[in-house]
């Protein structure tokens, strides 16, 4: 798999000072309605304003959150036309007034959960949310002026998505949502750090702080679930049980590090009962990566009485509430949610990228397909069919 190394020798042709301060015409994949095929067409991208950055996207991939948004699962979050996408990597094309931590040509990854470093949230060690730039699926314009930086060729606005909108050759982001990484990091693989890998692995390292010898159950072996597995492997977990109704996920799971696989369809009892039998009372940690409340209950009940710890990573669009009775929390089990793996993006992601580059974390297993950007609808279908973890699109 090819990687882009030093900017000055490999990527100089991708950035030109002739575009600075001007509107750029480029290709983007635009969503015009729920479930409608994305339209790859020419759009216009405005220059960055104060504390904004315009970046040239080189690689982008598709996450289940993009899939849910494209399908319009949450009617309240529907907004069209819109440029989706939030996992990517690229180069800084230009910076707006006030941006001092990045310059033209820097290698960067966008993050949907920004970090301004100035608000009370960013200054607190208790959260990785930012008061102004935290993840917000309802937000569809820029913070500065409430307007879009994208438009159709006839001047109609195209809405933003998750602070990022990476399904475009060029995109404009608030600088709080752009992370500078080492020039020698492989940009193709670094796109995974924008969401899936950081979310799953961070949930193990940061949220749960899993220690060597622990036992885990991972419900849902998509990219986030397998990132949990990878995080558990790096921490020296003793037993990692993967749970998925897609039997094909077993092979990939075992390649990354699961020690056991359970297909709920093969059982004549609830999954949590099987896991309790296998582990002598339950696992130390469970991770719900499916976005299904029934699965969440099984994950919660699969943990050990007295100290079980469940982390919610799945996106739950349904109006149903938690399937727990408050008294069930009196048995010592705890349940928490984790956003972006509790990583503070701008502060902590560069070090994580270095760890990935040095081989502490294996990223190759997550990229199962590669396609040109023009084939983006094919890439969506691969994810719909459960055939891909991450399909890397080359722009």
Question: How would you sum up this structure, described in words?
Answer:
- This protein has 395 residues and is of the alpha/beta class.
- Helices cover 24% and strands 22% of the residues.
- It contains eleven helices and 17 strands.
- Helix 5 packs across helix 6.
- The longest helix is centred in the middle third of the chain and has 13 residues, at 196-208.
- Keywords: Metal-binding, NAD, Oxidoreductase, Zinc.
Continuous helix count: 11
Secondary structure tally: strands: 17
Radius of gyration based on Cα positions = 21 Å
Quaternary form: single chain
Average the pLDDT over all residues and give the rounded result. 94
Terminal residue distance: 15 Å
Structural class: alpha/beta
Q: Quick one: overall form?
A: globular
> Biggest β-sheet, characterized?
7 strands, mixed
Identify low-pLDDT runs: 1-10
- Share of residues in helices: 10-25%
Q: Helices and strands, in N-to-C order?
A: HEEEHEEHEEEEHHEHEHEHEHEEHEHE
Percentage beta strand: 15-25%
GO molecular function: S-(hydroxymethyl)glutathione dehydrogenase [NAD(P)+] activity; zinc ion binding
Cofactor: Zn(2+)
Domain Alcohol dehydrogenase-like N-terminal: 50-182
Keywords: Metal-binding, NAD, Oxidoreductase, Zinc
